[in-house]
Automatic annotation (TrEMBL):
Residue ranges constituting the FAD-binding PCMH-type domain according to the UniProt record: 185-366
Stored Gene3D superfamilies: 3.30.465.10
Protein family: Belongs to the oxygen-dependent FAD-linked oxidoreductase family.
GO molecular function, one term: oxidoreductase activity
PANTHER family per UniProt: FAD BINDING DOMAIN PROTEIN (AFU_ORTHOLOGUE AFUA_6G12070)-RELATED, GULONOLACTONE OXIDASE
Protein name: FAD-binding PCMH-type domain-containing protein
Native species: Emericellopsis atlantica
InterPro entries recorded: BBE (IPR012951), FAD-bd_PCMH (IPR016166), FAD-bd_PCMH-like_sf (IPR036318), FAD-bd_PCMH_sub2 (IPR016169), FAD-linked_Oxidoreductases_BP (IPR050432), Oxid_FAD_bind_N (IPR006094)
One Pfam match: FAD_binding_4
Keywords, ordered alphabetically: Oxidoreductase, Signal
Signal peptide (from-to): 1-23
Classification via PROSITE patterns: FAD_PCMH (PS51387), PROKAR_LIPOPROTEIN (PS51257)
Top-level division of the source organism's lineage: Eukaryota
Length: 657
């Protein structure tokens, strides 16, 4: 293998030297001319197909005919954009190339790539650069960023900004501009493609593979694991693929489903899906946060929803997937074709199978919602800590009773600086239930709270649709911070079936909060709906009674040693306590602990071996890599063990056997 890699490197080096020694050219009417926007049209073919494609981007594809034509016209470096035949697999280099490496694309190659994409290439300038001295300084923009950095919309419409900037190395934060720090790219990608056609994705996939550079996919900037960025990478920005086709009568390829469905582009956001569903009298299965992309990391990762206890996970709704695979081909996966991939991409994690362009998902009838919400503190209620925990125990112990209905209880709690606790229930609701029945169900709990002297000033509500309840009662979550990290655990039903184990469970979760962690806890289940084919959703979801997210924070001025200690405490202590009371359970990969040493078991459970087998088959060159994604154990960021932020600011190399 070393000799083969050496030969590959030599050939690639000679090719690169040749391509960068002269300007790019193309033959037009028998004459060799400069390749530019006047002489090179975008490499795209408009496809007519019996398949249901979203018009305007999915029918615009890179084909063998397009590549053959450009080859005949002798466009320089066109071979870099050919599809992969998956031959000569042993020639894959040990590390991905970075800027400054001999094999990393030069300006001329980037120019050809830009020409073929129709000018879609964007050189990365970190959003926070507006606050740093230099050519990108802009006082007005900087003031806006400083005032709105924690709002998701600030980041969504930028091609590279991250809502979890730790993973770029916390570089170029706007608040640090006045401190004289330098704004660097860090773990941000080198370039992004503003994707508007399938052809642009195919060109990027083939180019990144040919030039041995990292390839990442970014839609909105949401990600708790750093899967949407990478040093020196080429990034695919799918945010503008936001078409939704409403189909009142849809039949799946195998005939197992007949009913309403949406075909959604990769850029569709949760609030966009909910709004269209409400307009057309349907209920969609989406997330809490309004700006999360539905078909991006959310659905491939499983995707829990306010209606999951009723309809299952987001991945359970998927009827068909259109995707560009690592060889550059555009395919459809469903229950009749590419079935292994179809199984894997429904719950088997994001950022590792290819680039999803659209998904067709089932939607459901319009449904009423009733529930209650509260936002209080122990100080406001005039109670001590012990009374507070008795109230919590009264609520948590009723989880199995509430789980008999399609309940969704979403609460947050954390310690207050001067003692006591903040407690927010935003919201506890049950789809398909009237307010009268909801009040009857929770009255025993309210009676027990009253007996304890606990009055959280409940706000009851009732709506005839999910969208209105979601829009009113789900809080906006701040983003853009660099002083916290989270982990989670799916606690199973059996923890409530034994009184001693239930008591231990409640005491364990309490101990974590008393040790300074913040807690987000859900009463939720993710049952597999009847009629849904087998998929790769973590089996732990099917038996979940309580979904806990725990987090640690550190001071903005914390040293690297202090940050490392906080990370170690989260993974090695707090998270381990939850594992100890739930052996054999699991965690939700989209909001998981990046440092979990048992992430394969935690995030994928018994599905992992099959997922890894499919990964090796569909992506033998490991073009797609992301932290904790299937197959990621074969690679690592060099020297990351010394990085307290666990960032993507480093060289990605194969792990030696």
């Amino acid at each position: 293998m070393p000799a083969q890699r050496t030969r590959w490197t030599l050939v690639a080096t000679l090719s690169l030297l040749a391509s960068t020694s002269c300007a790019q050219t193309i033959v037009v009417d028998g004459k060799t001319v400069s390749a530019d926007y006047d002489t090179v049209a975008p490499a795209v073919d408009s496809i007519s197909s019996n398949a249901r494609l979203l018009p305007g981007f999915e029918n615009l594809q890179l084909t063998d005919n397009v590549l053959a034509n450009l080859t005949n016209l002798q466009l320089s470096n066109i071979s870099l954009f050919h599809f992969d035949d998956n031959k000569n697999l042993d020639s894959t280099p040990k590390c991905k190339s970075l800027p400054g490496d001999l094999l990393y694309p030069g300006k001329i190659e980037w120019k050809v790539f830009d020409l073929l994409t129709g000018g879609a290439l964007i050189k990365t300038v970190p959003l926070g650069a507006a606050c740093y001295d230099g050519e990108h300084y802009d006082a007005a923009v900087c003031d806006y960023l400083l005032a709105n950095w924690s709002i998701t919309e600030t980041h969504v419409n930028d091609p590279s900004s991250l809502m979890s900037p730790l993973f770029a190395g916390a570089t170029c934060q706007p608040q640090n501009g006045a401190l004289g720090e330098e704004c660097t790219l860090g773990g941000f990608p080198e370039y992004s493609v503003n994707v508007t056609t399938v052809a642009q994705i195919q060109l990027a996939v083939n180019f990144a593979r040919s030039r041995n550079i990292r390839l990442v996919v970014r839609n909105t900037g949401h990600d708790f694991l750093g899967r949407n960025t990478g040093k020196g990478a080429l990034s695919l920005w799918t945010h503008h693929l936001n078409d939704i086709e409403v189909m009142d009568e849809y039949e799946s390829a195998d005939g197992s489903y007949k009913g309403p469905a949406f075909k959604m582009g990769a850029g569709v956001l949760v609030h966009e899906m909910y709004e269209v569903a409400e307009k057309h009298g349907y209920t969609g299965v989406g997330g809490e946060c309004r700006t999360v992309g539905v078909t991006g990391g959310y659905t491939p990762g499983g995707g829990h929803s306010p209606v999951s206890s009723l309809y299952g996970m987001a991945a359970d709704q998927v009827l068909s997937v259109d995707i560009v695979t690592p060889d550059g081909r555009f395919i459809t996966a469903d229950d009749t074709q590419n079935t292994d991939l179809f199984w894997a991409i429904r719950g088997g994690g994001a950022a590792t199978w290819g680039v999803v362009t659209s998904m067709t998902v089932r939607v459901h009838e319009k449904i009423a919602v009733a529930g209650m919400a509260w936002d209080t503190t122990t100080t406001d209620m005039g109670i001590d800590d012990e009374t507070f925990w008795k109230a919590i125990e009264a609520y948590w112990s009723r989880y199995p009773e509430y789980a008999e209905y399609p309940t969704y209880g979403y609460c947050r709690m954390s310690g207050l600086p001067d003692g006591g606790y903040a407690w927010r229930g935003k919201p506890f609701m049950i789809p398909g239930m009237t307010l009268r029945d909801f009040k009857k169900l929770v009255q025993p709990l309210l009676d027990e709270w009253e007996a304890l002297g606990v009055d959280p000033k409940l706000e009851f509500f009732e709506y005839d649709n999910l969208y209105s309840a979601w829009k009113k009662h789900f809080p906006t979550v701040p983003v853009g911070g660099t002083t916290a990290r989270t982990a989670n655990r799916l606690l199973p039903r059996k923890n409530w079936e034994d009184a001693e184990l239930l008591n231990k469970t409640i005491k364990t979760v309490r101990s974590i909060v008393e040790d300074g962690a913040f807690l987000v806890h859900y009463n939720i289940n993710g049952p597999k709906p009847e009629g849904v084919s087998d998929n790769a959703v973590n089996p732990a979801w099917r038996d979940t009674m309580m979904f806990n997210i725990i987090g640690v924070m550190w001071d903005a001025n914390a040293t690297e040693e202090e940050i490392a200690a906080a990370n170690k405490k989260l993974t090695g202590d707090l998270s381990q306590r939850l594992k100890d009371i739930s052996p054999g359970a699991g965690a939700y990969n989209n909001e998981g602990d990046l440092m979990d040493p048992e992430w394969q078991e935690s995030f994928y459970g018994q599905n992992y071996d099959r997922l890894l087998e499919i990964k090796k088959k569909i992506d033998p060159r490991d073009l797609f890599w992301a932290p904790t994604a299937v197959g990621s154990e074969g690679w690592a960021i060099v020297n990351q063990e010394n990085d307290p932020f666990i960032s993507q600011d480093g060289r990605l190399c194969r792990v030696s056997a």
